[in-house]
Amino acid sequence: MTFVLDCSTAMAWCFQDEESDRADQILDRLNHSSAVAPAIWALEVANVLLAAQRKKRIGHAESERFLGRLRTLPIRIDEETAIRAWTDIFPLASQLSLSSYDAAYVELALRHDIPLATLDHRLRECATKAGVEVL
Q1: Is residue 59 included in any domain, yes or no?
Q2: Residue 83 covered by a domain
Q3: CA nearest 1: which of 27, 25, 35?
Q4: How far apart, in whole angstroms, are the C-alpha atoms of residue 26 and residue 119?
Q5: Fewer CB within a 10 Å sphere, N or C end of the chain?
């Protein structure tokens, strides 16, 4: 079954101090499933890696290796995120008191009627409130 993948889950695969059983289970799920992410996901991942490099938490080569691994996973980027930013995501963000970035994950899960994989506690709560299954 396809699911929405958020940045917090993907980054747990990168940083040892963020590892969790839940993140590992979601990664294992990609062996027999696929994920979809809103268009902002790739920028969020890149930004976390850049911030980690600047703080000397990870080196450039490690970031490149991690991005290479992500490229091999069955993760599709949703091309409709930008089109829906003002019509669907903005109102949802307002309704759930979320950032527009986080609301993009919820909107994508609602639109495709698929679960959301996130380690973000607040996003989990809001997604559940909106009727989204959370992995």
Answers
A1: yes
A2: yes
A3: 35
A4: 10
A5: N
Q: What is the CATH number of the domain that holds 70?
A: 3.40.50.1010
- Residue 72, in any domain of the structure: yes
Longest Cα separation, the chain? 41
Query: What total of structural domains would you count in the chain?
Result: 1
Q: Which domain holds residue 62?
A: 3-129
Q: For the chain (length 135 residues), average pLDDT per consecutive 10?
A: 95 89 95 96 97 96 97 96 96 97 98 97 97 97
Name which of 67, 68, 50 is nearest 59 in CA terms: 50
> Cβ–Cβ contacts within 10 Å for residue 32, how many?
8
Give the C-alpha separation, 18 to 81, whole Å: 27
The token pair at 8 is 């917090």
Q: How many helices (H) and strands (E) does the chain have?
A: 8, 4
Edge-to-edge strand list for the sheet holding 75-77: 75-77, 35-37, 3-5, 116-117
Tell me if the pTM is above 0.90: yes
Token pair, residue 57, equals 């938490």
